[in-house]
Amino acid sequence: MQVSDFDFELPEYLIAKRPLEARDASRLLCIPEDGGALVDSMIRDLPLLVKPGDVWVLNDTRVIPARLVGNKPSGGRVEILLLEPAGENNVWLAWGKSNKPLKPGTIVVFSDSFSAEVLTRDGKNVEVLLCADDVPAAIESHGHMPLPPYIDRPDSREDRERYQTVFARHAGAVAAPTAGLHLTSELMAAMQQAGATFAHVTLHVGPGTFQPVQVDDVNSHVMHEEAYIVPEQTAETVNRAKAEGRRIVAVGTTSLRTLEAASAAGELKAGAGRTSIFIYPGYHFRTVDALLTNFHLPKSTLIMLVAALAGRARVLDAYTHARESGYRFYSYGDAMFVPKLSDA
């Protein structure tokens, strides 16, 4: 299977650079369970897709303002994208970007009271020591929201709220679980009235989710690794639902990857872990029965994941329909509802 099997043309004007005014105003393209004709719908209609007893699983990670912009003492501009803490004492793994490679010992100044020292470097990967009286507060005060590279504009005050789900709890992501951006408290309440139960997992989304696949053969690709947590209550809720034949719906590819990684041994297992699971056509799903997801990059691991659930040809046909119908793509774009189809 070749990466080029998941390629498609996407006009620039279909890439959503800003969110709609209302979270639940996005369009929703549905692939029917019977494999029939595609259905154009709206996110506000999600309660109509709920089956009584459904468990909809949300990723409750919270995006941190992980992009820091500063200067070397010489005046050179430096960007640091925080990835995750590296142990204690305010040491972080990060990506570094400057006009010259960052050398260990380099000091980057973000403000009079906030700076970083580069400890190690391996290509663009750096380990930095953040220096401030209150490092988490300094990150919140001086950091920028890490918008995806295809949103080619500076972040705004609006992004602080809109590039975050309403159910975000645990800080640590440097990219939003974007399918969840569509949900509001009112919409979720309506879904519960229709018979849905919500459960939570936490996967701190890393920037690798936006990295292009650099190989031709799908089997040669190595996925980035991310940390996740499955609460005990979520494991109990999901395992009970599976045993009773009820449907598990992943809200976003990160929720799906967490559920599948944590159920590798059979039932969903509670606890913390790390995963580099790569899901593409031919994968046997253990836990997830359906997926709510946004539209993804061509030749990306995310479109391969969706194709694993519903079939490559069917998903690419849906993407063609979406482009011809003016659906908005990527993080601030519209969504798809994708059931697991037996012939995928």
TrEMBL record:
Compartments where found: Cytoplasm
Q: What is its EC number?
A: 2.4.99.17
Work out whether the entry's keyword set contains NAD. Answer: no
Q: Which UniProt keywords apply?
A: Cytoplasm, Glycosyltransferase, Isomerase, Queuosine biosynthesis, S-adenosyl-L-methionine, Transferase
Q: Which GO terms describe its molecular function?
A: S-adenosylmethionine:tRNA ribosyltransferase-isomerase activity
Enzyme class label: transferase
This enzyme catalyses: 7-aminomethyl-7-carbaguanosine(34) in tRNA + S-adenosyl-L-methionine = epoxyqueuosine(34) in tRNA + adenine + L-methionine + 2 H(+)
GO biological process annotations for this chain's record? tRNA queuosine(34) biosynthetic process
- Mind naming one GO cellular-component term on file for this protein? cytoplasm
Q: What is its main location?
A: cytoplasm
Under the subunit heading, UniProt states: Monomer.
User: What is stated as this protein's family in its record?
Assistant: Belongs to the QueA family.
- PANTHER family, A to Z: S-ADENOSYLMETHIONINE:TRNA RIBOSYLTRANSFERASE-ISOMERASE (PTHR30307:SF0)
Q: What does this protein do?
A: Transfers and isomerizes the ribose moiety from AdoMet to the 7-aminomethyl group of 7-deazaguanine (preQ1-tRNA) to give epoxyqueuosine (oQ-tRNA).
Q: What is this protein called?
A: S-adenosylmethionine:tRNA ribosyltransferase-isomerase
